[in-house]
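To the structural biology subgroup,

Please find below the input and predicted structure for Type 2 lantipeptide synthetase LanM, which we are adding to the shared reference set this quarter. The sequence is reproduced verbatim from the submission form. If anyone notices a discrepancy with their own records, reply to this email rather than editing the shared folder directly, so we keep one authoritative version.
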Amino acid sequence: MKTPIEFLTEPLNSHRSLTTDCPLWPYLSYYIYHIENKLPKTSGSALETQSVIISGFATNLAARITNAANNVLITEKQIFEKSIIGREMETSSYYKLVSENKSYLTDIIKAYPELDRVLTKISQNFVEFTLQFFTHLKEDRQEINEVFNIGSDVNLSAIDVATSETHYGSRTVCTLSFNSIKIIYKPRNLKLEAEASGFLLSLSSAAGTDFCEWKIPIYLVKKEHGWSEHTPQKQAETEEEVHQYFKRAGFLLGYCTAFMAADITSDNLIAHGSSPIPIDLETIFYSTLNIETIPKEVRWNVTQTSILPNWTWKGTDGIGVDLSALGGLSEQYVSLNLYQHLEDETGHSQFGMDGVKIFPNQNVLYLNGKPAQPWDYENQIIDGLTTLFSILNNAQPSIIETIKSFRGRQNRYIPRPTATYHYAIQCSLHATLMRCTDKRTAFLENILNNDTAPAIGFLNAEVSACLDLDIPFARGQAGVLEFYEPGYSGSGHLDSKDYINGIDNSIQYIKTLEKNRIAFEEKLTSNTLLAMKNMYEHGNKLTDHSFKQHDDVRDPRYSNTDEIINKIRTSSEINACLINELLRTEISSNGLWLGFHSSPGGYMEFSELGDDFYYGLSGILYGCVVAASHSSAIDKALVTELLNHCHSRIVKKLTNKGTHLGGFHFGLSSAIVPLLIGLNYFDDERQSQLLQLYKKYVEDVLGEPWWQKYFWGSDFLSGMFGTLNVLTLLFDLTKDLSFSDLANSLYKKIETELTFISGSKLPTFDNAITTRSDALLSGLSHGIMGCAYSLFYFNKLIAKKDSIHELFLGFLSWELNEYDESIENWRDYRKRSESSAGEFAWSHGLPGNYLAISYFANNGVQPALDFLEKHPPKAAFSYSNLEKRKRPVNDSLCHGAYGILNIMKKISPESLLDPQVFLWSNIVNLSEQNSRILRTKTADPLGLWIGRVGSLLGSIGLTDRNYEFPFLPHQMEFIKP
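Predicted structure (tokenized):
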């Protein structure tokens, strides 16, 4: 059999000419040569059909070959520029040079054996896929004509092979055009998908006029493939159609919840006028968690179908993207630092790390050219949801029998997010790995071999598929926990002790679908839509909020600070009652770890709270312990219950490797100190167990070759400098030398990650986060200042080395030099929130930086002393200075009113003698809550750094002169009962 490289020296000998800009054209020649030899000889219209098919497949293959080879080609381009021509050249010009210079192209192919293997393999796969498709089309053509109403004399006019992911040998979806009629080819069994769509249609037909005539695709099902109707995205013509669309969307939400359909994302829903069309119901009757310690409401509910907004793929700025079927309404930015092909405006290319943009998909419903906003149609969505639930209750026996009939149908399980596979594949195409199959295999194993994926025994199949650029496909059967990879001879299963199959779970769900459960699902839906509204309305820029700068600042009711403090004290009492209610009704009664929380930037979400110090359970626990020690307003019995929940969750993570350590506010590390303080407060003997488990976890992480994957970058908030803070503080609290040793070990690793920039060693941050070309950021939570603090605290307590102090001074010098006299602040270089006036909060900008600088000054650091002498806090926090700045948008500790006011108490107490400072902060308006009833339509986070608990501590800080909130780790200490 001819190999691709032979076509460099031999002509193709094809009746068709090969015109392509693909630089590795020999692999295209290989494909065309072999497919023409294997397809039957024909003429006339049959030959035209063959040509259309080959052209469509070859076009797609050319793009896949180029994408797979880009990394190697860009590397070779850089070598060529430096060693041959001594200048940069446009990528397109270099690719043209490669394709025209056969000896040079031969050298490149021979230098990268793994690249040659991969490109040969996908070219072979395309030959087999084309033959398979051709056979299926020929055999099924008569039925296709009948089912999809295509004339027998109408020829195939075009085929579009999808650019999306491939499975089991480069197979993917194809769109066929027969003049104006389009149909979809899927190279897998569609029986379950077709039956599930039919079941949805039959249920909707029984639901009333609003649900009749719902457009659902027609299917033609075959054993190993199938055909379906093409349904394009179509905007609504009237407001009535929009109402009908969202009623049906609610009905679909109920359907997917009751029948365990997962993965109904923006990729798998088409907005077609008044019809939301699910196009991929292969994940119906999905196997889900069945752990008794997790309440059944949390194991599966409406939020897990992916239809409702679900903010995922968070970067180090804590902000995710909405990939849900009802979301993704506008352009979004993924702040994860992803390895990718980058091209600038001059045509020059390179591979590097950066964020990516995600654009609205075909799931978005438009009316008059504008996206319909789901939160405006909450009533319609809830109406559709409850209509479905009503049908289930009224026809329960027959519906359960229908569910049972699905048992054994071929379905799909998704072992881990497919984006994980995409990322692993992209990274594995690095030029250094494309020289050796064994090294690339080992790399993929290292990425994919972790304890977070629930599938048991599936790793080898996952690695094999990714080696050939396929996304692993776990084919299973509805009602069983086993699955296999049809293209790569691998199998896996889920632990029957921890998981329940989708058929049994669906039956169980419907049998127990009572009034309270329906109300619970309604509440989740409403709250998720409310959070979605907050998220989208927050906008693209964190600081772009307009307030009347002088509104209320001369309110005669608050002409002295005593009146304001009394108002805050009253608000604090109401807030404590609200916290008790939330603890009692939303956490302690059923373990509901779902709630409102906000990212550091203020973007609101409704999802699992998690265990983080920032907005999760450990932070809520810490705040409640502090509040309980100052007042009887917080119910200690509820706090004890919260402590037990928090402890069990964190211990489980410590005993099952795979969770990110993160930093001081996000990740597993962030939960340790607040939990320890809580245990100590209640004189709980589990303190020792917690510390031992954490030591072991950190030791194991630091012993791994790829230890960096357990941190979100370098920063204080969620990165390695944050965990350095945790280890230093644990040594400070316990005097256990093991933590000193671990801190030293981590520091040595951190030191290797520093980069020389302008003569100084500095930590860099993700290109996905910062707008600066040198990858630096200013600020306490995400920037150099936070790293400087971590370094100083570690060196002061543990290392005590001059060399580390000099390194710290370099960090501090960079930050102090970034102070901008023109705005009297530090500029904000974050991509999402770049602001000409800079952020003004604990997390970013002057208040947080002044906290750290004051700490350094109190410890005799001369540059800090000099800076504060030149820029005294009293001036920075005077009303005349504050009135130039945007007023706080919330009352949070992180970037709101309580944070700024409590920072003033620490470093500029005289500022709090001026009532206008309080009024400027908006604290009177922001903290006023008269009753819970008035807040039913308010996104109310419970968390510490942004949320009710943090606001309570903020108010205690202003009303109790003896309490000081610990904005910096060294201030945290054990609390006396």
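Summary notes: Confidence is low (pLDDT under 50) at residues 540-549, 930-936. DSSP finds 32 helices and 25 strands in the chain.

Regards,
Lab coordination
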